[in-house]
Amino acid sequence: MNAIIKVENLSFGYTPQNTILKDISFEVIQGKFLAIAGPNGAGKTTLLNLLCGLLRPKAGCIRIDAVPVESYSVKKLAQKVAVVRQEFVPVFDFTVAQMVSMARTPYLGTFGFEDKTDKQMVNKALEATDTAQFALRALGSLSGGERQRVFIARALAANSPVLLLDEPTSFLDLKHQVGIYDLLKTAQLEKGKTIVAVTHDINLAAQYCDEILLLGADGNYHIGETKDVLSREQIEKVFGVRTFVGRLGQEKFFIPLGKFAKDSEQIASKPHNIQQEQKQ
Amino acid sequence: MAEFLTAKELAIKVSICLVVLMVVMCLCALVGTQNISMGKVFSGPGQKPGENIDYEILVRVRLPRVILAALVGAALACSGVVLQAILRNPLADPYILGISSGAGLGVIIAILSGISWSFWGGSPIGIFAFAGALITVWLVWYIGHFTGKSQVTSLLLAGVVVNAFFSAIIMFLTSIAKSEQVYSTIFWLMGNITEKDLSILWFSAGCILAGIIVLFTVCHSLNVLALGHEEAIGLGVDVARTRIVAFACAAFVTAIAVSLSGLIGFVGLIIPHGVRLTFGPDHRQLLPLSAIIGASFLVIADTIARIIVAPAQLPVGIITAIAGGPFFLILLAKYSRKVSWLK
């Protein structure tokens, strides 16, 4: 099994006194879908920014395709790794097609005109994400969910083996959240993309991701298959919130229970409640 | 299916705009207080200097002035396009980073010190303006990088601070200057296109054209950079290099324009927006088309400035400000609905 991302003893802090990520090591096998989850401030986005070369590690090493990230030029790294951040409206009114074609930047010549291959890649990405219909519209005129699909189209048009996503479904409704993850899973299964997504939604992670990296605010972390790592104890420990864990067929689901939830202690202590009720 | 800008399509658009610019320049060269006959012009300069007045007026007075207006218009429009992209600020203009106050300070120092030497057959004021503009831009760039990681905000703030500080020095120097020196300074600050030696024009044209060509090579990167620093790095743009090249070239062509004509406002703001609204935000066509349309705009504005109160002449900066002020307000209304920091 070929590890396309290899993180070795990684440590990072924004100041010399403060260390957010301490001695983290893991690897992502080519074609796998990894979720990074954890409480606010645990360093999820920081880790993503380290993986895409935006930040430099304080100690340790990150290798993409066996080469340290800092050894890549910006252009070469963009050919290996495509990044999707939370959707936004650009200051200037770029069309959807213009936005997606920016993914081809690392492949363009001196004057930046797209060739036949670039155009094919962009059109394929627009079709794969069902955004071809918006191609000539300004990005700002689309809804949040449609815009996020455009950003995923841009990542696919880059034709890079690795996709990094930072909370790709923030601010999206349930339908669009599932739609975005369906798109990503399709890219993983059909195009063999390796995907790493920072997310707050452990239910979506449990449903779509092969592996999960749970980062704790105390610097501890757990990585493994989602079905193993996402247990009630682990979630309660990392997020510090009482959680109900249910199972519906093959899928596990999690409901955080606040202090106003009725009988929260009793519910939380009864795992697989739904399944039991269904059996009755 | 997506539509892509091709080199051929861009060449056609640029060619059409260039033809329009040539027509505008020819027509504007023919307009003035003194009517000239094309028949006489084509008969040549004559045996003795000054024998054919129509030829002399067209070739030695109006054409250099029209060429100068076109050069300054092209430089300011290009600079506006580039600074709006790097600063991600649709309201940025070529003077936002302190070029105006730096050049103004250079000029008032030249005027107050009573320097009498001539440079290339002309006044040294242009040299002082050029030096003042470039030194100020370097200072703003240095402060912007020294003060913070968010370079866009730091640069803007550094520009504002340096502009305010230099403006205060200009006001102080103006308050202690003699009245005729004050008049010269204010007239220069209003922006004025006057006849220049043809050799200066060709040299300036070469510099501005070189600057625009270098800027054209980073136009696609400017598209990506306009999305933000992190996005641009993720898309494979060498942000530091692109910023330095774009910033240096924009400052260089603006400093040349300022040294030739003083401070002409609004061209660098309204032309990029007008072109963007008409042709879209793709910098690969926004830059060359803004250069040509900016040139046409300033040639027309200068012609109006020459004839509107004939035989006297207005500084062209007044015409561009009258045309640009209302346009700026429309822009502000348009962008305040869209840009979060203007809400």
The CATH architecture term of the largest domain in chain A is: 3-Layer(aba) Sandwich
Helix content of chain B: over 70%
The CATH superfamily of chain B is identified as ABC transporter involved in vitamin B12 uptake, BtuC
Element string of chain A (H = helix, E = strand):
EEEHEEHEHHHEHEHEEHHEEHH
Question: Mind describing the biggest β-sheet of chain B?
Answer: none
Q: Helix coverage percent of residues of chain A?
A: 25-40%
Low-confidence stretches of chain B: 339-343
CATH topology label of the largest domain in chain A: Rossmann fold
How would you name the CATH homologous superfamily of the largest domain in chain A?
P-loop containing nucleotide triphosphate hydrolases
What pair of chains forms the biggest interface? Answer: A-B, 46 and 36 residues
Total number of strands of chain A: 12
How are the strands of the largest sheet of chain A arranged? 6-7-8-3-9-10
Task: Please identify the structural class of chain B as seen in this structure.
Answer: mainly alpha
Can you tell me the CATH architecture of chain B?
Answer: Orthogonal Bundle
Structure description:
The complex is a heterodimer of chains A (280) and B (343). Chain A has 280 residues and is α/β, with parallel strands linked by helices. Chain A has 2 domains: 3-240, 3-Layer(aba) Sandwich (Rossmann fold), CATH 3.40.50; 241-280, no CATH class. In chain A, 35% of the residues lie in helices and 24% in strands. Chain A is built from 11 helices and 12 strands. Chain A has helices at 44-51, 74-80, 96-101, 116-128, 144-157, 174-191, 202-208, 226-229, 232-239, 264-268, 273-279, and strands at residues 3-12, 21-29, 33-37, 59-64, 67-68, 81-84, 162-166, 194-198, 211-215, 221-225, 243-248, 251-256. Chain A has a 6-stranded mixed sheet with strand order 6-7-8-3-9-10, with helices on both faces. Chain A has a 4-stranded antiparallel sheet with strand order 2-1-4-5, covered by helices on one side. In chain A, a hairpin with a 2-residue loop joins strand 4 (59-64) and strand 5 (67-68). In chain A, helix 4 (116-128) packs antiparallel against helix 5 (144-157) and helix 5 packs parallel to helix 6. Chain A starts with a strand and ends with a helix. With 343 residues, chain B is mainly α. Chain B contains 14 helices and no strands. Chain B has helices at 7-30, 38-42, 53-86, 99-112, 125-147, 151-176, 179-189, 198-217, 219-225, 229-234, 239-261, 267-279, 283-307, 316-336. Chain B is globular. Chain B starts with 6 loop residues before the first helix and ends in a 7-residue tail after the last helix. The model of chain B is unreliable at 339-343 (pLDDT under 50). The A-B interface holds A 49, 52-54, 73-75, 77-79, 81-83, 85, 89-98, 100-103, 105-106, 108, 110-114, 118-119, 122-123, 126, 132, 135-136, 140, 158 and B 1-7, 85, 88-90, 216-217, 219-221, 223-224, 226-227, 230-231, 233-239, 276, 280-282, 284, 338-339.
